[in-house]
Protein 1
Amino acid sequence: MRSVDAENGKPTRSRTVARGAPALLAMAVPAGVLAAVVGAFAYVGSVDPGEPGHYPACPLLSLTGVYCPGCGGLRSAHAFVHGDLLTALHANAPAVLGYLGFAVLWTAWVIRVARGRPVRVDLGPVHLWTLGSLILVFTVVRNLPFGGWLIP
């Protein structure tokens, strides 16, 4: 949607939901994302990943015996849902950080949408390389003999 800036007469782009749209409509996407995440956590919380037959095994672990960065993620989510933070951290610490990071980003998203501001996440190459490097280091260390405390 294009409009004209009253001060300088230049065209501007609307960065929010069309004016006059109900606030409920603006919150539909964040609410849908939250509903999907809550549904996924509710399922994992009610169906124990420690019991065989409910979830598929990690293909990398099954074929090579190497733990991937996601190994233990379901057990971590199950423990997190049940309030057992230490077990969740032991099963997969980066996953717990991801849950908490999601909560912070989702909250910021809702606040910006409620205020009618644009939502942007500007991750530069440094951020992405740092995140990738940390995940790689975690994966390598958990597969070395001295990293046994990171094995789920």
Note: The helical segments are 23-26, 28-46, 59-64, 73-81, 85-114, 125-142.
Protein 2
Amino acid sequence: MHIDARRLTRPALALAAALLLLTGCAPTTAQPDPHGSASHVPSSAGEVVTIDDAWVKSAAEGMTAGFGILSNPTDDEITIVSARTEAAARVELHETVSDSASGGTTMREVRGGLVIPAGGTLELAPGGEHLMLMGLTAPVEAGQEVQFTLTFSDESTMSFTAAVKDFTGAQEHYESEHDEHSGHSEHDSDQGH
């Protein structure tokens, strides 16, 4: 903008100077990230986490487990604090640990949630961390699908569908602090995982 100061009165000159200053201080439009994401806008975990290869072990009753590979594209860890599905009375977040007493492995609930590392993945797999479905509401048969909803530490959620498959591996013992589940035998735990 070019202004001829010789033709302006003092008030007009002051106004022109103020307009030039305001134009120079105007906010600029944010430039998009070259990768196509608006990195300056925080997203909830439920908006950014994805899952691949989601599946559930078939079971006639009792317990079973859900698996898949969760991805976190952000620069921060993301924690899953709970999960739910209509296929079971409740879902626990589980890990599998070595049981020195029996020489086998034991499944137990994870306190504090499951962590998806920053810029990484969390594999939910037989013999490892998984979603434990407790008190199935009906048989879960191969060919069906199970709908899950995960809740994250930021209180956001994401839903996904997992295919039901037959699977006979990873026979762990189930360890629980709940009275109704204490005393599970190896046979009982076979249904769950």
Note: Helices lie at 10-25, 45-48, 186-192.
